[in-house]
């Protein structure tokens, strides 16, 4: 069955700041995701360890992480996903188990040349890519396979909530139903900031205690002299 090409609406170029490919000219989004692997694994440990009494993340025995990233085309009020990439991590070993990058066929926009270069494909190859529904189904299947026993749950991780929000908007526009794991994704940016704030508060507390002890010691020395 022939693939119908989208209407020729050009997506905005880099001067508009919209090709949302957060990778260097020499690296694909998948490679960028892989490069962030260690950070994702570390952040997952933070998410597991963070106490929830102060509104933080509830501790969960996650054993597998799906660090996920998206690439978009944008023009006016149109946003389309053109790539979904994920890296599967084992939390215990901090090892990458699988790295996947799947193209998504746009329905309304044409990708600029620089975006095609970063994706490493031609316009024709992008037109022949899987639909958003098909790619999401593959991701869902991978997540379910890693969580099928219910004992070793997998969790989705994203760095920026904005990208996840745009992805959900695209899915809604295509009438693609998303499973709950997309709503329960761990936002690494928040976890890391929360962790840093906690560490900063602990450090300030230790410094205050140290200064108080020094002041107390100084007073004792002066009174003893």
TrEMBL record:
Q: Which GO terms describe its molecular function?
A: nucleic acid binding
Region entry Disordered: which residue ranges? 1-26
> SUPFAM superfamilies recorded for this chain?
Ribonuclease H-like
Highest taxon above the source species = Eukaryota
The record's listing under InterPro entries reads: RNaseH-like_sf, RNaseH_sf
Q: Where, if anywhere, are coiled coils annotated?
A: none
What is the name attached to this protein's record? Exonuclease domain-containing protein
